[in-house]
């Protein structure tokens, strides 16, 4: 099955400063890795578009959106929270992040492209952005916006979200928690940033998997199978969205987990195994991943396993 790779050039204008871990080289490293592996030539490469405002306003308040427009700087950069820099081109990049995700969604659901599988290389990422708050490098919650568009514009009733980033997808749960149209499976180092929305039992549609610092391949894979496998089968999703963060890798400087390249291949294979028998579309959206070499290799392993 051919995979589509969506990205956009406007992210280059999201300057985050010399010392910030979330920068344009991340997407460049992924692209280089895909080319070096030979995978690039097998992918449909598609340029994304800007967001439609109604899509953003399903997940975020109007006031929050207007506030971002008002505070965007004309030069240099400001910080919208302690971790999230905003440059003159950041808001446009964030709008392209959202728009590229929703475009990919429309494509995989409309069968306009001859596959049901897409990977969206975006920045800024999204899963820490809450209903009315920027957080953790994120302005708009790309995956929650995509999920809400799938439910409300495409009328899907069961949408699974798998978040294997090393950090809790607090924003996604803030927006979609206790909404039965969504099943959210999130694995993350605990206790760790962002230290919110991590409780088990507080949300009836969330399966949080806490990972001790140092967790490696075998323990991780067993937890995925123990906590998510049957739940995902029973939920029988019509669409699987993935918050694909690669910062649980052993080499990543932003977390203390010990996954290997091969674990991302295993995850891709496991997700494809849930999707392909019933022809369920899969849309994977980039979140974290800050060691450039490990990020590139892990994305190659993940996409290869889904082909
Ligand atoms: Zn992360």
UniProtKB/TrEMBL annotation:
InterPro entries: HDACs, His_deacetylse_dom, His_deacetylse_dom_sf, Ureohydrolase_dom_sf. It comes from the Bacteria. CDD domains: HDAC_classII_2. Pfam families: Hist_deacetyl (PF00850). Residues 20-305 form the Histone deacetylase domain. SUPFAM superfamilies: Arginase/deacetylase. Belongs to the histone deacetylase family. This is Histone deacetylase family protein. The lineage of its organism: Bacteria, Pseudomonadati, Pseudomonadota, Gammaproteobacteria, Oceanospirillales.
């Amino acid at each position: 099955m051919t995979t589509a790779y969506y990205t956009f050039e406007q992210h280059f204008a999201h300057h985050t400063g010399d010392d910030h871990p979330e920068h344009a080289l991340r997407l460049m490293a992924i692209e280089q890795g895909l080319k070096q592996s030979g995978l690039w030539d097998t992918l449909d490469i598609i340029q994304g578009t800007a967001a439609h405002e109604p899509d953003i306003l399903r997940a975020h308040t109007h006031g929050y959106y207007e506030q971002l427009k008002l505070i965007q700087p004309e030069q240099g950069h400001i910080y919208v929270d302690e971790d999230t820099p905003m440059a003159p081109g950041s808001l446009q990049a964030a709008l392209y992040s959202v728009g590229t995700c929703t475009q990919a969604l429309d494509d995989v659901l409309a069968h306009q492209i001859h596959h049901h599988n897409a990977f969206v290389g975006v920045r800024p990422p999204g899963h820490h952005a809450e209903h009315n708050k920027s957080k953790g490098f994120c302005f708009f919650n790309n995956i929650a916006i995509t999920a809400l568009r799938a439910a409300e514009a495409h009328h899907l009733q069961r949408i699974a979200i798998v978040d294997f980033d090393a950090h809790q997808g607090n924003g996604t749960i803030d927006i979609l928690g206790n909404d039965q149209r969504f099943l959210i499976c999130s694995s993350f180092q605990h206790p760790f940033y962002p230290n919110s929305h991590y409780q088990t039992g507080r949300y009836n549609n969330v399966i949080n998997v806490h990972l001790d610092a140092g967790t490696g391949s075998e323990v991780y894979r067993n937890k995925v199978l123990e906590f998510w496998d049957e739940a995902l089968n029973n939920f029988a999703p019509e669409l699987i969205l993935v918050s694909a963060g690669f910062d649980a890798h052993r080499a990543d400087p932003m977390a203390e987990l010990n996954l290997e390249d091969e674990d991302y291949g295993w995850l891709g294979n496991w997700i494809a195994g849930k999707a392909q028998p019933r022809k369920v579309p899969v849309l994977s959206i980039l979140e974290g991943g800050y060691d450039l070499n490990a990020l590139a290799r892990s994305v190659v392993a993940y996409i290869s396993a889904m082909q």
